[in-house]
## 1
Amino acid sequence: MHHTVLLGASFGYTSHVLGFLMRNIMSDLRNKFGKKLRRIRRDRDMTQEQLAEAIGVTLDFISRMERGLDAASFETLDKLAKALGVPVSELFQFPEDK
């Protein structure tokens, strides 16, 4: 009985730590993605408003993605890639990964 309580407490702590790590990893990915999206968009002399209109989302959503505050769905990733003229994989190729 005592071991069950310890395992439960240990699991609770472990799941909390794992949750924290996953949030940080995802936040880092969103930030890298956002910077890459902004760079590609600017390289094409496209405004956030033009990109938003091209893919059918709000200007605020583009801004939030570029700042790493929001993430794109698979459908939106496909639309972004097409509007920017790049393969989806290019959106996830970060300078330090090369």
Note: The chain has one domain: 29-97.
## 2
Amino acid sequence: MLRMPSVGWRRSAPSETTRRRDTMKYRVLAALLVVNQNYAAFLGAIEGYPPYSILDLGCGPGRDLSHFRSLGHEAVGLDGSRQFVAMARSHSQCEVLPSGFPGDALAREPL
């Protein structure tokens, strides 16, 4: 049974910790919304019929690869960081290759 607070009850102001937590939740949700809008715009601009073959240059830790794979597309990633290549492979279960583009960390290391 829901009880109403007594007359004169006031909700106390949220603590600093609560404000920070709520701010972080908002930022994460806002970022997810923007990312989902970008996915929809990207896929909507591709001509032809799905599933698509998608090459993600600079795939980072593989967030986008994982999303496209979950939709049934064939996604392959390239990245200039050995750490990101390993993370993307593990996270997305997609093929991810080291890029070795001029200026990348891998271009300065022997493969």
Note: Residues 16-44 form the longest helix (29 residues).
